Amino acid sequence: MLVGASVIFGFVMVLLVLAFRKHDDAPRERLWIVKLGLVFPIAVLLALLAYGLFVGERLLPRQGADVVSVKAEGRMWAWRFSYADVEGRTTQGVLHIPAGVPVDVAVTSVDVVHSFWVPRLAGKLDAIPGHVNVLRIEADEPGTYHGRSAEFSGEGYDQFAFTVVAHDDAEWRSFLAGEIE
């Protein structure tokens, strides 16, 4: 978005410089400025809107056979994760997910408002006591990703972080079987 806004801003500044120059063929030049001054920004904004809708659509939680469901429960100052695929399986401070598979994270809190945020995988979502919000995340490849609460919630907030470990298929099955902690 910043790149698109910068391109539009730069182009508009060039057009303003051209608009305030003195020239003999002013009517023809003004027509050129008006056309490009409207057409170019609208085209860039439409392209940015299309990109935003495409990316946003991928992050919407939807039903599907290949979707993994996880519950993230925030509390001062830790996250506890429960896995729907394995009854009673929980982890503290480390979220395990399969790589290349959409994961719906049901985010809630037991005490105050927190915020679930994994910058490399998705946007942030508030964890509100007594309410469940769902965020879809997906790691394209196996690896370790860092997450944190992005909501100031008192003393100790600065240490309120967690790790997301995205496993390949074999490691994910090992995790579900209890072979990986």
TrEMBL record:
<dbReference type="GO" id="GO:0016020">
    <property type="term" value="C:membrane"/>
</dbReference>
<feature type="domain" description="Cytochrome oxidase subunit II copper A binding">
    <location>
        <begin position="65"/>
        <end position="178"/>
    </location>
</feature>
<dbReference type="GO" id="GO:0042773">
    <property type="term" value="P:ATP synthesis coupled electron transport"/>
</dbReference>
<dbReference type="InterPro" id="IPR045187">
    <property type="entry name" value="CcO_II"/>
</dbReference>
<dbReference type="GO" id="GO:0016491">
    <property type="term" value="F:oxidoreductase activity"/>
</dbReference>
<dbReference type="GO" id="GO:0004129">
    <property type="term" value="F:cytochrome-c oxidase activity"/>
</dbReference>
<protein>
    <submittedName>
        <fullName>Cytochrome c oxidase subunit 2</fullName>
        <ecNumber>1.9.3.1</ecNumber>
    </submittedName>
</protein>
<keyword id="KW-0472">Membrane</keyword>
<dbReference type="GO" id="GO:0005507">
    <property type="term" value="F:copper ion binding"/>
</dbReference>
<keyword id="KW-1133">Transmembrane helix</keyword>
<feature type="transmembrane region" description="Helical">
    <location>
        <begin position="31"/>
        <end position="54"/>
    </location>
</feature>
<dbReference type="Pfam" id="PF00116">
    <property type="entry name" value="COX2"/>
</dbReference>
<dbReference type="InterPro" id="IPR002429">
    <property type="entry name" value="CcO_II-like_C"/>
</dbReference>
<dbReference type="InterPro" id="IPR008972">
    <property type="entry name" value="Cupredoxin"/>
</dbReference>
<keyword id="KW-0560">Oxidoreductase</keyword>
<comment type="similarity">
    <text>Belongs to the cytochrome c oxidase subunit 2 family.</text>
</comment>
<keyword id="KW-0812">Transmembrane</keyword>
